Amino acid sequence: MVLLYGFPENPFSQPKNIFLGHMITAATGVIMLDLISLNVYLLISLSVGLAIFFMIMSDCIHPPAGGNPIAVILGNHSYDFLIFSIALGSLLIIILGIIFNRYVLGINYPSKS
Q1: How does pLDDT run across 59-109, given as a tens digit for each residue?
Q2: Within 13 Å of residue 88, how many CA atoms lie on the same side as its CB?
Q3: 13 secondary structure, DSSP code
Q4: Where do the H-state alpha helices sit in the chain?
Q5: At what angle do helices 40-58 and 15-35 cross, to 10 degrees?
Q6: How far is the first Cα of the chain from the last one, in angstroms, to the nearest whole number?
Q7: How far is the CA of 11 from the CAs of 41, 42, 46, 59, 74, in angstroms?
Q8: Is 3 helix (H, G, I), strand (E, B) or coil?
Q9: Which residue, 19, 29, 36, 52, has most beta carbons within 10 Å?
Q10: Closest CA to 13 of 100, 103, 80
Q11: How many CB atoms lie within 10 A of CB 39?
């Protein structure tokens, strides 16, 4: 939210990065939790590292999304969490960001760069 409302022109603040960054990192956490049985601290470390790697490889970097695997693993969340919390929450944040930036602040968001 700090990036979206404070620095809306930043590439990390664009809707694609927000939505896909959160989806990629949360999915990484859920999949790792489902498939790998490790000590929770090792699982968190591996999941966050992989999530960052996947964000970089997909060019959908959104730094705040890096915390999603931690929340997913500590909360023992399932695949439903991806749809009902991450996807819907990200879409709501993006919609509110568009409304706030365009109509309250008068900033052209999302930017075309």
Answers
A1: 999 999 999 999 999 999 999 999 999 999 999 999 999 999 999 999 999
A2: 5
A3: G
A4: 2-6, 15-35, 40-58, 68-74, 80-81, 88-99
A5: 140
A6: 20
A7: 31, 31, 26, 10, 29
A8: helix
A9: 29
A10: 100
A11: 8
